[in-house]
Request: fold
Amino acid sequence: MNYYIPVQAKFWVGHIFAILWTSFAIYISVPWVVDLAEVVSLPFSIFIISGIAYIPGYMNAFLIISIISDKQPPLKEAYLEEPVTILMACRNEQGQIANTLTYIKSQKYSPDISVIIVDNGSSDKTTEEAENTLQELDLSGKVVQEENPGKFNALNKGLEYVETEFVITLDADTLLHSRAVKYLVARIITSPENVCAIAGSVLVRNSRETIITRMQEWDYFLAIASIKRLQGLFQGTLVAQGAFSLYKTKTIKELGGWPDAIGEDIVLTWNMLYSDQKVFFEPLAVAFTEVPSNLKEFITQRSRWARGMIEALKETKPWDQPMVYTKYLTGINLIMPFLDFCYTFFWLPGVILAFFGVYWIVGPMTLLVLPLTLISYSILYKYQKEVFKDLNLRVRKNIHGFLFFVLFYQVIMAPVSVWGYLQEWFKLKRIWG
Reply:
């Protein structure tokens, strides 16, 4: 017999498990704390170990219990009658736009789908290619121009032309699974009235290009998906990402559209949560996006994400969120700069010292973080594999990418995130890319 466990119970059970795990970790790590204290003082020892072990361990423990207890209600798929608009802001996407529109045309969704493409100052023939493809595919839509730079400007321009109840944002390099729109719409009509957005599941389409894209395949497939599952369970998915998400058009217009921010989708989502509405995640609504294929592009993208998080924290304070779940979920972001700082300036030097036999920071005790990380990835892999099975997709083998992801992803990400925080702190020039 299946028993329903209320969300509130799942929330507190997860925290109890996390507290127990962290208490165990603290107990057995006392010798590590004492040894490091002989070098840097006891308070600083606790400060360092909290940032590289205790807090990450707590978060992983909470994540595991949350994922295990996550069970979404069945979708109402039988009678979907809601027409939708797909809104794309693009710039210099001449080589991508036709393929993206072709996948939109192939959607297994019987109600009307219209497309609004906003050309944000392209220097190539994006507009001509889009208009020709819309005509060739007999796809309802239009191309409009927005010369003011910035994705938020382009999206707000397109919003003026949206007449449907629901609008889906889609990046011009992102390809939809044939049932992606169907599952997004089905999820929102299945959800309570105060759910105003559904984040889709964005995965990597170009994972075979370089070791950087191979690594990102696992990042999207495991890490990002697991975090969105956690947030969706507690009714506060923190980013209805612009790459592929569905929104209630009325809600966006009431909030004044997309804000002037480098992380416009993050700030918009937090404003939705602040207005006492909810944002869910639908793992079956899958789209495949083009990710950075070299380290320079990856650093630019992820530092922009980190900067966007700081923008959201400045715009909407976690303690002002109306629900306890969203207070907690957005509050986690307050300690992310601390964790990234500790990883960058303590963990990485500690790894170097360990190679020379100096185990002040990195030693046997730090391995306590690994079991929970691997367990969470194993659980998520099982869930994601079931999703792929339902969609008639196959999980591609990518062993080298997985090893690189486990061993080096955080080594790259922590310094990159710190760089993003500094960009926002010093108000450096914004780059939309």
Notes: Residues 145 and 360 are 58 Å apart (CA to CA).
